[in-house]
Write a structure and sequence with these properties.
9 strands; alpha/beta; 8 helices; about 200 residues
Length: about 200
């Protein structure tokens, strides 16, 4: 979708995403992948270079995705000089919930948003010899430990409490998300538009 921008040179059509990014809004939507993570990093770098003091809004509506891609995004969110405010606009599941929870400058959910946390999943069928399977298992357990540590750090819960909560697909309403420490506040759409 394109929107019209009026200037002294006339009217120009630009993609709506470009216009929204000019207002410092970045979206994490759909599957979190290496490609979407790199696009996210580019946008955060650009906006930090433009103004490292003005907040960036990250709007999440995602089922989650690749752990390594999500960890890249996590590192960038934590290191950004510009404050990053997180908004759950729809749902943030799995790695999407981890990214939402890691916001240090406000974590906001719309009234009908939903989070889901769980243990890391094995994406592909397991095949190979016993050594390969053990290596995959060890890697999955290490990922689980990292995710639990991150969620514990950002929720104020113990790793044991997080491990219990992530032992199954744990869906949380906005109220439950606030109670668990994953979200700071339930807000209306107007909060996003405040900029």
């Amino acid at each position: 979708m394109d929107v019209q921008i009026k200037s002294s040179n006339g009217i120009t059509l630009v993609p709506v995403e470009t216009r929204l990014m000019a207002d410092r809004n970045i979206f994490i939507e759909g599957e979190i992948s290496s490609e979407s993570a790199c696009e996210f990093v580019k946008k955060v770098m650009y906006l930090n270079g433009e103004n490292a003091e003005k907040p960036i809004n990250v709007l999440i509506n995602s089922n989650g995705g690749e752990i390594n891609a999500g960890m890249l995004m996590y590192d960038v969110i934590q290191a950004s000089k510009a404050p990053i405010r997180m908004f759950c606009v729809g749902h943030a599941y799995s790695m999407g919930a981890v990214l939402f929870a890691c916001g240090n400058h406000g974590r906001y959910m719309l009234p009908h948003g939903e989070l889901m946390i769980h243990e890391p999943l094995l994406g592909n069928r397991v095949g190979g010899n016993s050594s390969s399977i053990k290596s995959i298992s060890d890697s999955l357990l290490e990922s689980k430990r990292k995710m639990n540590q991150i969620l514990a750090r950002h929720t104020g819960k113990t790793e044991e409490e997080v491990e219990e909560a992530t032992g199954y697909d744990h869906y949380l309403t906005p109220e439950e998300s606030v109670e668990f420490g994953l979200c700071d506040e339930i807000v209306s759409f107007e909060k996003i538009m405040e900029g």
